[in-house]
Amino acid sequence: MASVPAVRYRRIAGELRKLREAKGMSAEEVVAGVGGINLVKLSRYENARVQLKPEVVRALLDFYGCDEELKEVLVEILKEKRRPGWVAGYDQLNPLYTDLIRLEETAVGNKSYQVSFIPGLFQTRAYAHAIISMGVIKTPSVEERVEVRLARQSVLTRSENPLKVWAVIHESALSMSAADGVMADQLDKLIHLSRYPNVKIQIMPTVAPPNPGMTGPFALLEFRQRDLDLVLLSGMLSSNWVEDPDHVDIYRTAFDEIIATALDLDQSLSLIAQKRDQLK
């Protein structure tokens, strides 16, 4: 069965604590007003140290007078754990990557900046295989990871609310040395994807002035409730989530500066096509 990403548990727990504090309520007042919960359990709920049950979370949200939209979003996230997920069949994946896949299924937007590689949501099979195979950290099954990466791309074409993806890619990523045809096919796919109504692709030119993208790649996941947005920072040995709303807003501002510095959509498409023509 699918599970709620750990990062989501922490955010929901944080919302419960924030709502209680915003109401000026003590833990004792909440326990007295909400049935089936004690001080220990409330503390564990607010610190994500136990499994969060939808019915208990709903009771707390009702008690705090939470608005209906936020309540619906939080409870729906918890109910996700009861639904089978396709990624559950791949037990060798990094847990954080599994979280990313699960989160993208409920996200409305993905804004990312990539320096060295084409974003995973845009990769062809051959390109993904080349990138995963070159990893310094070897995994048991390259083919399995390739299959997962390709399956993950279904969020771009899902029937209801396809994920809106806005990616800024550094120009250097368009010129990766690869086997014959690999990069050409990858650039063809970028050109094809740029026609999707839910996809925007911009290129950061090599000669661009200083900008926030120089600090490294990141991905901003956007949800129906802005306070639940997350940022993923990826590194060679480890990756981590940025969860604090104030810190997420810093990356939101950074992305706005990045897209303002990058080539516009038409210029970016022209550059991709130019790079593709050079591979003929």
TrEMBL record:
Annotated InterPro entries: Cro/C1-type_HTH, DUF5753, Lambda_DNA-bd_dom_sf
A Pfam family it matches: HTH_31
SUPFAM superfamilies, A to Z: lambda repressor-like DNA-binding domains (SSF47413)
A molecular-function term among this protein's GO annotations: DNA binding
Occurrences of domain HTH cro/C1-type (ranges): 16-70
Protein origin, superkingdom: Bacteria
Protein name: Transcriptional regulator
Organism encoding this protein: Kitasatospora indigofera
